[in-house]
Recover the amino acids of this structure.
């Protein structure tokens, strides 16, 4: 019942693509590697899967070991498997992605991560392994997903202004949006609840705050919408 | 630069979930395995990835070796990696799916496939490995996808009647649809071209034939729609 030795000289890893938003820019959580291969290079927080570990448990364990983050909802994106993507041997990697609110977490560098940092997507240059390709694919998926499902809201505070929401969509889609069309489209989805409060401590006229309607959010998350903007 | 031996005692495979439609039922292409493990059991057409083979080339090579099918557009669905999913060792598998028109292909059993057959989804009982779980996940994805993108059309002949199209959606979604609503919704997408021809050789009054508008098809495929039915 052996499958032969040749194919068993392979390994698999997980890599986490953690997107964050800080009211202006879309960012990505990267680690600086303390170990070879690619020592001192920025990389996605990833590592090999243990032999006795179910695949679905690996990305959260790895993220926790490298950054201390816990309870992050990670969704499988795609598996990458070019023959030479890892210099040490044949390693395919399963990429996961997540959206988190930067202000709600405090990642810390641990294990073979000597540094951990939120870096603006626009400023990401080269990355270790094929991580740039993985980031770009995941960013494309995020851009498709925010047009079909209201997932982007996970990047906002609990209450937010329409301008903040527009900034989020502009940062994710990397383009300016028409204010009037954007508001019309968002309000037509009946996804927002008017929380009857206003911004505080701002120099300009305070804007109305909204939260999302959790029930409607779940409906749109399962059924989808077509947010052409 | 070694990554240690423990993690390198693993392998990865690809499994293909090929959906077909024969004017009435949604079917799945299965092979009967001639080899252990799971000899004489029905399974998805899958096999190990070669050590020197890019992952993206593996599913088509495997499908061709087992069934003779070629030039099938395969899309990665998800990677499955429970610790004990394969009795011979630690094997994760990358699942791919495709939609093809049953009448346009003639699969043949080859290699360790001693039989190949289109089996109605409804009649699929147990399968080798975790292939039943993979099939069910892929079917869920297909059901989500046909509501968001016009991919289902790949299962139809080049020209088709509105009834055939409705039968396709009914078979995929496994529910009866209201004829009037269905037609209204489909026609409102302006996806169909009236080819100015009628069915031939039918006992009832021949129905109008349509094809899809390739340009509009590509637009909807990239931008999506929300087909609530």
């Amino acid at each position: 019942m052996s499958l032969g030795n040749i194919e068993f000289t392979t390994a698999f890893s997980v890599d986490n693509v953690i997107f964050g938003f800080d009211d202006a820019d879309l960012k990505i959580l990267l680690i600086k590697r303390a170990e070879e291969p690619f020592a001192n290079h920025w990389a996605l927080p990833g590592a090999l899967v243990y032999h006795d570990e179910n695949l679905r448990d690996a990305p959260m364990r790895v993220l926790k070991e490298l950054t201390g983050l816990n309870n992050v909802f990670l969704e499988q994106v795609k598996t990458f498997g070019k023959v030479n993507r890892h210099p040490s041997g044949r390693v395919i990697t399963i990429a996961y992605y997540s959206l988190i609110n930067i202000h709600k977490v405090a990642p810390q560098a641990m294990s073979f991560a000597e540094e951990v940092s939120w870096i603006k997507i626009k400023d990401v240059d080269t990355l270790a392994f094929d991580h740039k390709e993985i980031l770009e694919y995941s960013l494309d998926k995020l851009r498709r997903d925010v047009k079909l499902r209201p997932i982007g809201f996970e990047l906002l505070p609990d209450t937010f202004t329409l301008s903040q929401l527009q900034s989020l969509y502009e940062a994710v889609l990397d383009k300016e949006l028409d204010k009037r069309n954007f508001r019309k489209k968002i309000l037509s989805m009946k996804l927002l609840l008017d929380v009857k409060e206003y911004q505080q401590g701002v120099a300009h006229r305070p804007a109305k705050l909204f939260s999302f309607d959790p029930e409607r959010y779940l409906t749109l998350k399962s059924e989808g919408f077509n947010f052409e903007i």
